[in-house]
């Protein structure tokens, strides 16, 4: 991997904090970029210019802020959790994205991009979804903004996530079954791009995480940074000091970059992203892309990826559908390279144990994805007793009940983080 001096790393961090990255080519240091078919380049360039202009426009920001307040329910609460804190010998605070409309942070991005699409003159929205969470957020945002929406979803995922398919349809969205390729998220992304190539002027492609070709990693970071801005302000107001650590789960990386980006310049805060360690360290048994992956191109960006020995993209595993992705956003790849963020992993069993622990201690049922951040925080508390820890609780666990019901309550209480 690229050899960088301490000065190079400090300079890249400065550029990230100053939001000079990504550069015009969409690069975060060696990562990112725009690896897309020629037919999409004009649309990506138009979107980049439009996004930069609208995000800097006070009228657009005011309209977005009004919708985030009255429709999404922002600011979301910052909740102290005293019982858990006592058990862990730490001072733990939760940034409650589970309280955002539709139950997770994904709505911040879906609403922001839908509003952007309307201002850019799009006539219809295209989106892809794996487990259906981004599809539901996109469907809700499009209904609210008044744009028709088409969601591509793998046939296998449609069977596994039937309630979310129904939810999207009730929100007025057309769900298209993808029967090609692996018939899951990867094939759905390919189909969504294909649709966009066919009609790049009137369609807007609403991507669900901080991945993909430039400008998506930038755009999603800007829209999700509301999490970290609010949390920083709230924790300062509540205790007059910043936390020792901020910890979030990492799938594609959108909730984590949203929490971390506004904290990058606070050098006293340890930032820790927690990936899905799945059922073990063997290739195919986890989705710990940054921990075990190698660099390569997937879905339009150069970042870290999970390959098999033949260089094929690896099938991944996680008990949480939202973390089950073989890639990760390019900004995280750079943050790891320069050492500003550490990336840990938590296993399926550690995440299941954390769901039970938070639910019983504090009356908050977290999403299985978010439970990975909880497991990481528990480990941090053990290594640094007495510390103040801010956890990004990305979503609520109601959607996970079918999975949770396969495991008895307390079955993993003996599992240490
Ligand atoms: C989708 C999802 C994630 C993972 O996506 P990121 O882009 O990594 O944030 C995490 N938590 C919840 C609740 C999700 O729905």
Q: Secondary-structure map with pairings?
A:
Blueprint: H1 6-17, E1 27-28, E2 31-32, H2 41-55, H3 58-72, E3 78-80, H4 82-88, E4 91-96, H5 106-119, E5 124-129, H6 133-145, E6 149-154, H7 155-160, H8 162-170, E7 174-178, H9 185-198, E8 203-206, H10 216-224, H11 226-239, E9 245-249, H12 254-260, E10 270-278, H13 289-292, E11 294-298, E12 301-305, H14 330-337, E13 341-347, H15 348-362, H16 368-383, E14 388-393, H17 401-404
Parallel strand pairs: 4-14, 5-6, 5-8, 6-7, 9-10, 9-14, 10-13
Antiparallel strand pairs: 1-2, 3-4, 11-12
Helix pairs in contact: 3-5, 5-6, 5-10, 6-8, 10-12, 11-12, 15-16
Pyridoxal-5'-phosphate binds at residues 104, 106, 133, 209, 249-256, 322-323, 367, 369-370, 394-395.
Q: Could you explain how this protein is built, in words?
A:
This protein is of the alpha/beta class and 417 residues long. It has 2 domains: 28-68 and 106-220, Rossmann fold (3-Layer(aba) Sandwich); 73-103 and 224-404, 3-Layer(aba) Sandwich (Rossmann fold). 44% of the residues lie in helices and 17% in strands. The strands form 4 sheets. It has a 6-stranded mixed beta sheet with strand order 3-4-14-9-10-13, sandwiched between helices. It has a 4-stranded parallel beta sheet with strand order 7-6-5-8, sandwiched between helices. Helix 5 crosses helix 10 and helix 6 (133-145) packs parallel to helix 8. It starts with 5 loop residues before the first helix and ends in a 13-residue tail after the last helix. The chain binds pyridoxal-5'-phosphate. Pyridoxal-5'-phosphate binds next to helix 12 and helix 16. The site of pyridoxal-5'-phosphate has 19 residues, from helix 12 and helix 16.
């Amino acid at each position: 991997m690229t050899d960088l001096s301490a000065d190079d790393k400090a300079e890249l961090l400065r550029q990230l904090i100053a939001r000079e990255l990504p550069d015009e080519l969409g690069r975060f240091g060696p990562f990112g970029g725009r690896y897309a078919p020629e037919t999409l380049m004009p649309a990506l360039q138009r979107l980049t210019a439009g996004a930069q202009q609208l995000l800097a426009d006070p009228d657009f920001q005011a309209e977005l802020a009004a919708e985030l307040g009255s429709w999404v329910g922002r600011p979301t609460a910052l909740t102290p959790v005293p019982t858990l804190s006592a058990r862990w010998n730490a001072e733990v605070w939760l940034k409650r994205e589970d309280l955002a409309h539709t139950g997770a942070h994904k709505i911040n991005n879906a609403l922001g991009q839908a509003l952007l699409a309307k201002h850019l003159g799009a006539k219809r929205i295209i989106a892809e979804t794996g487990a259906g969470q981004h599809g539901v957020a996109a469907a809700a945002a499009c209904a609210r903004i008044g744009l028709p929406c088409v969601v591509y979803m793998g046939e296998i995922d449609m069977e596994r996530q039937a309630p979310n398919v129904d939810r999207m349809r009730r929100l007025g969205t057309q769900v298209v079954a993808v029967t090609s390729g692996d018939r899951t998220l990867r094939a759905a992304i390919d189909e969504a791009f294909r649709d966009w190539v066919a009609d790049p002027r009137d369609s807007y492609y609403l991507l669900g995480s901080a991945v993909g070709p430039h400008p998506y990693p930038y755009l999603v970071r800007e829209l999700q940074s509301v999490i970290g801005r609010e949390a920083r302000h709230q924790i300062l107001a509540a205790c007059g000091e910043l936390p020792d650590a901020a910890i979030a789960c990492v799938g594609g990386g959108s909730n984590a970059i949203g929490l971390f980006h506004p904290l990058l310049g606070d050098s006293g805060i340890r930032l820790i992203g927690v990936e899905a360690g799945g059922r073990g360290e063997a290739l195919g048994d986890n989705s710990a892309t940054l921990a075990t992956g190698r660099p390569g191109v997937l879905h339009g960006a150069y970042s870290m990826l999970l390959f098999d020995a033949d260089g094929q993209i690896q099938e991944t595993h996680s008990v949480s559908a939202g973390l089950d992705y073989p890639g990760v956003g390019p900004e995280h790849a750079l943050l790891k390279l320069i050492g500003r963020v550490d990336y840990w992993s938590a296993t399926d069993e550690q995440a299941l144990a954390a769901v039970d622990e938070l639910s019983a201690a504090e009356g908050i049922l977290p999403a299985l994805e978010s439970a990975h951040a909880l497991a990481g925080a528990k480990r941090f508390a053990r290594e640094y007793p007495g510390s103040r820890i801010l956890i990004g609780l990305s979503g609520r666990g109601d959607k996970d009940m079918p999975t949770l019901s396969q495991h008895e309550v307390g079955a993993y209480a003996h599992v240490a983080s």
